[in-house]
Amino acid sequence: MSMEMTAWNALYTSRHAHQDQHPFSAATVRRILRFAHRHHRALVAFLLLSSVLAGLTVATPLLAGRVMNAIDRREGTGLVVLLATLIAAIALAEAAVGILTRWLSARIGEGLILDLRTAVYDHVQRMPVAFFTRTRTGALVSRLNNDVIGAQRAFSSTLSGVFSNLVTLLLTLVVMLNLSWRITLLTLVLLPLFVLPARRMGARLARLERERADHNAAMSTQMTERFSAPGATLVKLFGRPEEESAEFARRADRVRDIGVRTAMVQEIFFTALTLVAALALALVYGLGGSYALRGSLDAGAVVSLALLLTRLYAPLTALAGARVEVMSALVSFQRVFEVLDLKPLIEEKPDAEEVPRGPVSVEFEDVHFAYPSAEKVSLASLEEVATLDTRGGEEVLHGVSFRAEPGQMVALVGSSGAGKSTLASLAARLYDVDGGAVRLGGKDVRDLSAAALRATLGMVTQDGHLFHDTIRANLLLARPEATDEELWSALRRSRLDGLVAALPDGLDTLVGERGYRLSGGERQRLTIARLLLARPRVVVLDEATAHLDSTSEAAVQEALGEALTGRTSLVIAHRLSTVRAADQILVLEEGRIVERGTHEELLAADGRYAQLHRTQFSQHPGTGQHPGTGQHPGPGQGAGAEQGPGTQQGPGAQQGPGTGRGPAADGEGAQVGAVV
Q1: CB burial of residue 14 (10 Å; 0-12, 13-18, 19+)
Q2: How much is the average pLDDT of 64-86?
Q3: For residue 493, what are the CA distances in angstroms to 459, 464, 517, 588?
Q4: Whole-number CA gyration radius for the chain
Q5: Backbone dihedral region for residue 404 (phi beyond 0: left; psi -120 to 50: alpha; all else: beta)
Q6: Cβ neighbours of residue 397 closer than 8 Å, sequence gap 6 or more
Q7: CA 133 from chain center: how many Å?
Q8: Residues 6+ apart with CB under 8 A from 590
Q9: Does residue 444 surpass a pLDDT of 60?
């Protein structure tokens, strides 16, 4: 390795090492060794080859010195040719061993990346929904990318570097001291002039690098938010493009200045180190040459010392920064283990059961529930805050009990934040109850396997989320083995086949990020088609028509009719006209069922349900359809009318999202001002 390359490595290490001051942890090291155990054979081979490579590195300067002596003493052409041949053979061997060592290093490092990434990914998938509602996606992705790669460097770079440099250093020192202990000690005196500037300049560059990274991160965030479909719309409607552009330009200008400054610091650094290296070589040639002329040292020894000098400075400089590299790798491992140590709140039992065959009932028995506090489901570093929010843990459901018989439809209505979507989440086991039980087909959902639960219960949420993929891929998420004929059947039953058939790419049409290339009604019908493809025996509809106009709602209601036929269903209702045919209607307020019965029974009781009904249907009494017609009023009329945030009048009107109890967004906080 050249002096310049050595300097660059030292500079790079100081510049890019983690600045976190984490204490050395023996437990972390033990976990790392357990994680690396599956690669132990490759590691042993790698270390052995690194030792061989270090020996070959030292052998070449000795042979070069021997060639010089042979020439100086005129020992014959044959010896010179033999020595040159040995040097060539060692060079070939060094290249071959270097390639093999690099292959093993890459194999171990990439294997470790695979192990860590799959472990973290699998673990994160088992985390509850509360984890994802709190965590910043970018911070979590960083653990899977930057920190995993940082941990990988512990084996592919740090371990090999420390071991091979240590072996090279010892061999080089032994050889140089044997050749001339005086020259060797004098060259070591210049070492601080080589190492200290690297560390000092590295720290300075690290500060510039962090500032540049902060500005780049801010620009990335600005672009990500402003260039998404909803973000771009918001800027066009309410933003100030000139100020947005000026802010972006200010950060970009600072990044440019930092780039120029960084380039100049690096150039000054390399120039200084080149001078130090030249001084060291001058010392060897000057002092060694004088010794050779006096006959106390061979000319070949001077050549060997000069060549060995780079082999001495390189490992010494690298080992001087080894602690930084090791601590940086430990920090990366600790950040990965931090995620792996976050225990999922929902665990599948080893002896998990299946749901009995045939129609399935849904039962809630004395259910109590509080959303988990942040410390149970999240990390401050993943939320990018100094300390976690201490709020949470307040009970939002208080002894809820009801039963939906096989094939029945039970509707849940009530004010925003009453607990309707919370019940839906508990049925799907997105959370576990704190007290009581939720049963499907008589089996507690906590006793069921995840696969059995997914196969039994299907859910349509109010946002109709789709992945940025094709229509086909979004549908096959429900049943990967489905044929094209089954896909078209599901689309036909969801009243979407005509639209998809008219698209140029048909089933292979990309729907865009979160499905934004489709209208709200089309997205919802596609999620219903996905539900139909899954063929669940229990259907949960969480305000599936809440955001739709009357035309889209009518199409979605037709599709929902297909989805609910013959299935047990829980329907969270935004518009009371959509649930009047339910077998049972439950009215929730503040986490309790305050009324239950059929539409007619609840109207006759003249309680909370009747109050909500009057609120909806008295907005424009002359224009709305009577619920008895089964038709849905158009926009701005009757039950379908929404007056905007906080403007709906009458009993139960909500002035803002949620109730302040846990994540009372509940899926319902988005319905600002809605009463059901």
Answers
A1: buried
A2: 87
A3: 17, 17, 21, 32
A4: 35
A5: beta
A6: 367, 368, 369, 419, 422, 423, 426, 591, 592
A7: 13
A8: 398, 418, 419, 659
A9: yes
Residue 378 main-chain phi, psi, to 5 deg: -145, 175
- Tokens found for residue 423: 């019940």
**Alpha carbon 56 to its chain's center:** 43
584-610 average pLDDT score:
91
More confident residue, 519 or 662: 519
What is residue 363's DSSP assignment? E
DSSP letter for 600, please: H
Structure-block tokens of residue 578? 């959509």
SS3 for 568? strand
Nearest to 388 by CA among 377, 397, 403, 396: 377
Can you tell me the distance from the alpha carbon of 490 to that of 508, in angstroms, rounded to the nearest whole number? 16
How many whole angstroms separate alpha carbon 303 and alpha carbon 298?
Answer: 9
Choose among 26, 15, 334, 329: nearest CA to 149. Answer: 329
Q: Which residues pair with 438 in a beta bridge?
A: 364
- Predicted TM-score (pTM) of the model is 0.62
Q: Could you tell me if 539 and 564 are in contact, meaning their C-beta atoms sit under 8 angstroms apart?
A: yes
How would you classify the pairing of strands 457-460 and 538-542? parallel
Compute φ and ψ for 639, nearest 5 degrees.
-65, -30
Q: How far is CA 453 from the centre of its chain?
A: 26
Query: CA dihedral in degrees (627, 628, 630, 631; nearest 10)?
Result: -60
**Is pLDDT of 647 > 60?**
no
| For residue 17, pLDDT beyond 60 | no
Angstrom CA distances, 585 to 416, 595, 600, 618, stand at 16, 8, 10, 21
Q: Name residue, tokens 């689309």.
A: 491
Integer angstrom CA distances of residue 618 from 14, 628, 651:
71, 15, 12
Residue 514 has pLDDT above 60, yes or no: yes
Query: Cα separation of 437 and 419, whole Å?
Result: 16
> What is the predicted pLDDT for the residue at 550?
65
